[in-house]
Amino acid sequence: xxxxxxxxVRGDIPPGCAAHGFVCDGTRILVFGGMVEYGRYSNDLYxxxxxxxxxxxVKPQAPSNGSPPCPRLGHSFSLYGNKCYLFGGLANESEDxxxxxxxxxxDFYELELQHGSGVVGWSIPVTKGILPSPRESHTAIVxxxxxxxxxxxxxxxxxxxxxxxxxxxxxIETMTWSRPExxxxxxxxxxxxxxxxxxxxxxxxxxxxxxSAGGEISASDGEWKCTGSFSYxxxxxxxxxxxxxxxxxxxxxxxxxxxxxxxxxxVGTRLYIWSGRDGYRKAWNNQVCCKDLWYLDTERPLAPSQxxxxxxxxxxxxLKWDEVPTVExxxxxxxxxxxxxxxxxxxxxxxxxxxxxxxxGGCSLHQSPQSLPSVPYPEMKVDHPSQxxxxxxxxxxxxxxxxxxxxxxxxxxxxxxxxxxxAMKNHADATGFKESNAPSLLPVCTSSAQTSANVGELHDLxxxxxxxxxxxxxxxxxxxxxxxxxxxxxxxxxxNGAVVKDETSLTTFNSKSEAAETAYVMPSARVNTGxxxxxxxxxxPQRPLAPVKARDRRWYDVGIFKNNSAVVSQFYLLPEETxxxxxxxEGADVPDYxxxxxxxxxxxxxxxxxxxxxxxxxxxxxxxxxxxxTCIPGFPGAPSTVKITKSVDCIHLSWEPPAxxxxxxxxxxxxxAIRSTQLQENPSQLVFMRIYCGLKTSCIVTAAQLSNAHVxxxxxxxxxxxxxxxxxxxxxPATQVRWLQGKVTAxxx
Length: 749
Hints:
Its main location: nucleus. By secondary structure, the chain is mainly β.
């Protein structure tokens, strides 16, 4: 929402302080030291439980081999595991706060934390190697390679009478200090900058730097200024890469301005930069306090979860997928089993190369709507939030390997940006972006009352309800039945036309990976209307079909969506020349949808879906493929409003009849996913056993049946049920319910 709020905190509220140490451990925050007033520093430690906004002053045990940390400011305070690492800072040697006698520190402490809340105490680790020189206003980060190596803390820059730009490394396992050799251009000496780790890179932004570009200035009263320079250090190769140089001009204010004393935080692969002050040494009274918020997209977003089916009709699907943090939208595509003829005569007009949806990777920097405007630089993309309905930003891309994007309030850009601005504005209008919570796509079609598949996720509570008709998704709290949009996990659950077999038969379903889709097509189940009251089961046979030709494996755009849900009744047909390109590359530009014809979905047809997230760096990888089938006219819809009531030795499962029975309901069948050797061989293929068949809209699931249940770990641990209805034509699609188990003791099959 980009909305600030002031929480009502309580408890041992600390006094205001500057240049303190600050770490975030889950939902708690630890604050150490800082300057309470001029010349008076602190060595108090406070803990904030952000889930309750409760402050608590904590008193760690003193180290067994020395004194606790003295009052200080400008120190570093870094978290790794259950320990915080304190290094350096500035102390006041004088007992009189008005007579400040600065002393730079290079002492090193370790603070052990208790789980959840509280601390154990300070310790002074015995280190090897040469300690870094005393300093304050430096940065310290901790990085550990995923594949090999021990965690390492890196200290960069700071102040000790003059600005520093040296890099130090501490191996936390061996407690050994060293000076790593680096490649590339080292950033200017600086203090009061920020350093953050995203992936294997340490991003360094801003700070106070010498006024002259000649390097360090030894005099303590030397001139210095704030900088907006931006670099990163590849922590695997120890190579510095410059993104924004200190001398780079920014006449259009399309990048964060020079600043020091700001704060920066990494959320996923996005870096947020807030506030700070700008000025230079001889103009203290003219310093400017910044109140702008920026973010930097450092890489393309991760692949979303598989597309999940909420409900289907004869000609539409209601779909959702898990949210990907810090993204601007989602590209949804489908693939039909039956080839769709290409459209001739439609020009293959695409988005210009500068589009955010291009296949080029890189970084992208944005400014939030409250902040200042911005300008293109080499390796950068520029974004303007003034077009609020445009999720695909207007941008400029200049050469070089990395793309940096800045977003501002003014439509100020280089001349070459005008074409891209207009093209992207038209493209955004065609895709139909909206800022509302409603799914935004072209077209948006409302599904009818008939439902074909509903999937809900239930927590392990005494009474729980899923009402697929009331919401796209549903979950239940511990105290009441409720419907939300946040907690749904759904899967392919269409069992339309399932074959009726004997009581002991099992039902198997499969969810194929994207790699498998090139050679296999899931056949639809057939309908057997000659049997009525026998047990019901369906099997999706996994038989290989003839490989499909490349030009038949075409992915069609459904649209670009602001939110993680969509109602799909149409898709866009691409011109044949575009199809030939898209069959070879996934990263092709998104076309102008206004120039494309639309195709309606057909009844009784299997469609495959995949989705990719979009941020300032472009379109990320696609999700695994999901397959859903539109309903066949005349079959009943899926049951709705599933409830689970837990007893001591069983659970009570109930539901409501389909909204569109399409005739008289002859019976219902309920199924339970069970453990089996077949499931062990192919974990993605669930095996179901029928546990109920009859006219009642409820059944009892015994403890004996539950003891054989398979616990599905595709997302959170859950036991899976499916319920379907049968009319004169046969069984319709099933409603699937995932019953969340919390801390599961059942066997992981």
